[in-house]
């Protein structure tokens, strides 16, 4: 009975959360779709620069000198770490569907993440087409058959980007790393909306300025009322906000027409009229010399 009751509560929560997220998706789908389309454009640009890549001697780098290479047989370790980070962030971004402690809507979170990715990837495309360096990866070095690509036979060959092999074994897009773009954006987003703050960069600062801040969900408010109690509380709060807004409009209208009911405010305006105020003060002082 306990499992059945908890499963029913979980299903109601998932259903309510899904309805709220779908409502947001219908309103914000344009930027989400543009971000997903740009992922293909980014892959297409990386495929295109591979045709321009020319292998050469490895560049001298202090980091490579200080840290030994993993070796070609252990190259999977890098991809494994990145895959773990990617899947972990993906699962965490959907936790509001299950957990009660939530600070964001999943649609708005991915809308923001894709905006960061698009801005960073756009700068990346400009960079690796402007500065082409010999790739240090094993399949990009001299002697490898994958280091250079023969001219394409058709435009379709370029547009298909040889997925996924063309993405995993690309060369020429050295500066800057796409893996690091995803990793830093995911880590930064988690630290902002998960638990702690994190260092920001120029791209994050720019996107934060252009996009409005996401609403905080710690107060328990949702776009759709889950129960009749939540619905009554939501309607009561809306009514209070409406009354407050009407009262503020009335006060502004009174101030503009000079019909304020505050006697102190009225006396100050009369005294600011110059001579009329002075004559009134003289009349009052003559009529009441003892100040009574």
Automatic annotation (TrEMBL):
Sphingomyelin synthase-like domain boundaries: 170-205
User: What is an annotated GO biological process for this record, any one?
Assistant: sphingolipid metabolic process
- Which parts of the sequence are annotated with region: Disordered? 273-292
Molecular-function annotations in GO: transferase activity
Q: Give the residue spans that cross the bilayer.
A: 76-97, 109-129, 166-187
Cellular compartment(s) = Membrane
| Source organism, top-level taxon | Eukaryota
List cellular component terms (GO).
membrane
Question: What's this protein's family per the entry?
Answer: Belongs to the sphingomyelin synthase family.
Q: What name is this protein filed under?
A: Sphingomyelin synthase-like domain-containing protein
Task: Specify the species.
Answer: Urochloa decumbens
Q: What taxonomic ancestry is recorded?
A: Eukaryota, Viridiplantae, Streptophyta, Embryophyta, Tracheophyta
């Amino acid at each position: 009975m306990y499992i059945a009751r908890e499963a029913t509560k979980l299903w109601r929560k998932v259903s309510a959360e899904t309805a709220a997220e779908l409502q947001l998706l219908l309103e914000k789908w344009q930027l989400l779709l543009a971000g997903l389309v740009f992922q293909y454009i980014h892959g297409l640009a990386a495929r295109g620069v591979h045709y321009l890549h020319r292998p050469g001697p490895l560049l001298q780098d202090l980091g490579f000198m200080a840290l030994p290479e993993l070796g070609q047989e252990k190259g999977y370790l890098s991809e494994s770490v990145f895959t773990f980070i990617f899947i972990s962030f993906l699962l965490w971004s959907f936790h509001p569907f299950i957990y009660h402690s939530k600070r964001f809507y999943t649609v708005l979170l991915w809308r923001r993440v894709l905006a960061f990715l698009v801005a960073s990837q756009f700068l990346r495309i400009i960079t690796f087409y402007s500065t082409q360096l010999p790739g240090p990866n094993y399949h990009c070095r001299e002697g490898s058959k994958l280091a250079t690509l023969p001219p394409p036979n058709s435009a379709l060959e370029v547009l298909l980007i040889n997925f996924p092999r063309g993405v995993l074994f690309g060369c020429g897009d050295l500066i800057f790393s796409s893996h690091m773009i995803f990793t830093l954006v995911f880590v930064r987003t988690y630290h902002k909306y998960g638990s702690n703050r994190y260092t920001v960069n120029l791209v994050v600062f720019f996107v934060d300025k252009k996009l409005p801040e996401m609403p905080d969900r710690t107060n328990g408010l949702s776009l759709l009322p889950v129960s009749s109690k939540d619905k009554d509380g939501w309607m009561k709060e809306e009514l209070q906000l409406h009354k407050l807004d009407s009262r503020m409009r009335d006060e502004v209208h009174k101030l503009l027409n000079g019909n304020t009911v505050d006697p102190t405010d009225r006396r100050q305006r009369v005294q600011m009229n110059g001579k009329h105020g002075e004559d009134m003060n003289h009349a009052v002082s003559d009529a009441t010399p003892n100040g009574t």
